[in-house]
Amino acid sequence: MKATAIAHPNVALIKYWGRKDEKLRLPTNGSISINLSEMTTTTTVEFSENYKSDHIQIDKQNLFDEADRVIKHLDQIRTIVNSALKAKVVSENNFPSSTGLSSSSSGFAALTVAATTALGLKLSEKQLSVLARLGSGSACRSIPDGWGEWNDADTSEGSYAHSIFPKDHWDIADVVAVVSSEKKDISTSKGQKLAQTSPFFEARQASMNHKLNTLKIIITNKNFQKFGEFVEAEALNMHAVMITSSPSLIYWSVGTIQLMKQIKKWRAEGMPAYFTINTGQDIHILIEQKNVKKLICKLQELMYVKKIIQNTVSSGTFTSKSHLF
Ligand code: PMV
């Protein structure tokens, strides 16, 4: 009863910030994302009578806070098949976690697929996405391939992500610039609860349906300038809600601000590149494939950029025969 799954984190182009149901992790609006090809979480889960308790190892460490959340998720999955078997879970990220690169999206997507497969459950993509969402909202978008949309819904069964364009729909790169390895001080889960305290939250919500439709048209027509301007403005809109919530959430570091300004400067000099940022200091730079090399050379000259990860749009979560133990 052992299975391994590999998932890619996703980056939202239209973000999910705020929930209408905390327990079910139902978002207050729909969102759109892409899966990131060079970043992975690999997770092996084994259920066995030999285990007297659940053993959780993430990135070679036994992390107790996060273990709690993993065990809760295992419990939800065990309930489906009425199993009391304990599990060993080993999970490895090939990228920094808790710095804004959405390791919880790939983490809970991989955990969901590995654990359900290990228990012999045969679930549809939609059911896996619903289940992954209960672990971490954005994880539902790492299940389907390519460009994903997570619908706004009022029920748990209705709240899942599906693919709206295949991974090779458009030659877009997402170049991640890690500006610091410092872990964020307020987790995304805690931060989400504060969204509605911002005076700007209602205004943001009122615009979301229109934004979802507009972005889908832009992606269909592959207009990169409109795409970049839209995605960057959306990220800043979400951060405006974060910064003005009570207490305020400022996830940026000095390096984040330096790089945002630098990207705008490069744009003014003729290189079309745009940024998006999640809950953390690291930056995603969206750029057409033909300009990636130029961007990487420029990033390499910046002392404050510690690591660069060059992604294309990738597949969803899949199983693997190479187990971690
Ligand atoms: O899924 P969570 O609870 O980790 O929240 C994700 C929040 C953002 O990354 C900021 C936005 C998003 O839609 O991914």
From TrEMBL:
Gene3D superfamilies per record: 3.30.230.10, GHMP kinase, C-terminal domain (3.30.70.890)
Keywords: ATP-binding, Lipid biosynthesis, Lipid metabolism, Lyase, Nucleotide-binding
Pfam families: MDD_C, MVD-like_N
GO molecular function: ATP binding; diphosphomevalonate decarboxylase activity
Protein's GO biological process: isopentenyl diphosphate biosynthetic process, mevalonate pathway
InterPro entries: GHMP_kinase_C_sf, Mev_decarb, Mev_diP_decarb, MVD-like_N, Mvd1_C, Ribosomal_Su5_D2-typ_SF, Ribsml_uS5_D2-typ_fold_subgr
Domain Mvd1 C-terminal: 175-313
Domain Diphosphomevalonate decarboxylase-like N-terminal: 7-161
SUPFAM superfamilies from the UniProt entry: GHMP Kinase, C-terminal domain, Ribosomal protein S5 domain 2-like
Keyword Nucleotide-binding: yes
EC number(s) reported in the record: 4.1.1.33
Top enzyme class: lyase
GO CC terms: cytosol
Family indicated by similarity: Belongs to the diphosphomevalonate decarboxylase family.
Protein name: diphosphomevalonate decarboxylase
